[in-house]
Every structure is written in structure tokens, then in C-alpha cells.
Amino acid sequence: MADKDDIREGKNFHPEIPHESENFFLKGSNSLDWGMQNRLARIFRPDTGRTVMLAFDHGYFQGPTTGLERIDLDIRPLAPFADVLMCTRGALRTSIPPSVAKPVVLRCSAGQSILTELSNELIAVDIEDAIRLGACAMAAQVYIGAEYEHKSIANVARLIDTGTRYGIPTLAVTGVGADMTRDERYFALATRICAEIGAHYVKSYYFEPGFENVAAACPVPIVIAGGKKLPEPDALEMAYKACDAGAAGVDMGRNIFQSDSPAAMIQAVGAVVHDNAKPGAAFEMYEDLKADLGDRQAAE
Ligand code: R5P
Fold it and tell me: Helix axis angle, 232-244 relative to 262-275, nearest 10°?
């Protein structure tokens, strides 16, 4: 109960100490509201400014992708090693227990399949459901130069507008159709368009030469997708080069969940992204962890 008689005069005002007003650590995000920044600070580690997002949203247009046949068995054990889970609401509700307690970036577009035109997407998740699921960001694809370019940009703009109302950031994914080029000119165009329409961060692919120019010209953080499965040393080298050239981490799927040892691979990727481990050292770490996990599995 409130005790009016016991109200004491405050003494610890410290008028000599100015109130701190820190700059937000993430590129392009300093003017965002508290909720936006808080969600971004759960996606990107404030101590490194980078993230390891585990992407397993592939089923939304390509069905049971290799390595994702059973999200409950394949992905759930990897969650402790990821900074963020990127997935559909269906995968989340059916296969990832809420007690996993990792930040979620929710895939909010759908509407096509690998059998049809990839760029013909729509926004397939209502903002209310994203809020209900506690999403830290929403994601949709922009397909620059594709048949449904205009529609895909409109989708992302809509997510940005609705998300801004509730403090939820938007990740714009630069989708690349089967026949589209993956060079500096293309990604400079695509990533810059995403940032200028208001995306809070952008997913791109890594490419050479010129990734550093694209990262510099994009005023918000870029994370790289892994793309098709590569041998582990090559995937680790790609992650290293991307971060070295200005990427703020990875949003990686197949190069983790299709690896011979997904749990070892995600930890090795984490060492590259957060500790700047050199690709060779990260691969050694991968081999050691893989052997260790193999031994433990054999003993069980
Ligand atoms: C496409 O299905 C999604 O945007 C993926 O999340 C993205 O391509 C990252 O996955 P991966 O590393 O397998 O390319």
C-alpha cells in the first residue's frame, strides 16, 4: 500500500553526471524508435554489430528441401548456436518450441512455387500475426528486373509501413530469379533500392569483385545468404570475405543444414562472423567439432 508518510526526500540525483545518450551501434539505424532499435539489437549482437541468422524458410516455395525434411529434427538442435531463426510462421508454430527463445525473423511473403514465376509474390502474413509471434523483423523479397518487380517492391514497402507502426523492422531480401546476373551493378541497384524504400536491413548474395562497393553504398546493414551448398572451406571463406568487405553477418541456410555436420558448421560460421576467425582456422574448428560430435553420437 502506498505510504504517503514515508516519502523521503531524494538525494541521489547526481546533477554532476550528464544523462547518457548513446549512439545506436548499427549502420543507418540511429534515428529509429526504441522498439525498432531494441529488436535490431536482438538480431545483431551489439558487441560485434553482426549476426548469424539461420535461414530455413526455403519450404515456402520449394517444399521439403534437402536438409529440411524434418525441421523439428534438423533445425531445432541448431537453434542454440544461431543468433536468429529465419523461417515461416508454419515452421515456427509446428516445429520450434517457444521455449527455444531465439529472436525470429519471419518470412512474410509467399504466393509462388518453384514451378511458377518466382517474382510473383504477395504479403502472406498479417502484421497482427507477426506481433502475436513476437517477430523481431519481417522479411519479403524484392525482385529487381524481374517480371513482377513492381509488385515485389510494393510488398516490401507495405511491410515497412505496417511494421513501422508497431516498431517491427523489415528485412528486404534481394531475390534473384534463375536467369538473373549476380554482379556488382545488379546488387548495387537492388540493395540501394531496398534501403531507399526504407528497409531496415538487406539480404544480398556475396559476389566478387565489388562487394565492398555495394556494402558501402547501402546505408543499412547487409547480411549475405549462403546460396547453393559449397564445400565447407569455401562457404567459410565466403562468409569471411563478405564480413571483411562490410557485411554485417550471414543469413545462411543450405551451407549449414546441408553440411555433413550442421552443428559444427554453424559454430564455425559463428567464429568467422563474430570473432573474425580466418577461414582456415574456422575450418579446423569445424573438423574438430565434427569429430567430437561424431564421437558423442557413436557413444550414444
Ligand atoms: C530463400 O529461400 C530464402 O530467402 C533463404 O532464406 C535464403 O536464400 C538463405 O538461404 P541459403 O543460405 O540457403 O541461400
Answer: 20
Distance in angstroms (rounded) separating the CA atoms of residues 147 and 289: 45
Q: pLDDT at position 182, please?
A: 83
**Torsions phi, psi of 195, nearest 5?**
-65, -40
27 included as an active-site residue: no
Which atom belonging to ligand 1 lies closest to the Cα atom of 55?
Answer: 6
Q: Which residue has the CA at smallest separation from atom 7 of ligand 1?
A: 225
Which segments within the chain are labelled E, that is strand?
51-55, 84-87, 104-107, 109-110, 122-123, 137-142, 170-174, 201-204, 222-225, 249-252
Question: pTM value?
Answer: 0.94
Ligand 1 mean position to 171 CA, how many Å? Answer: 13
d(CA 69, CA 257): 10
CA dihedral 216, 45, 223, 96 (to 10 degrees): -170
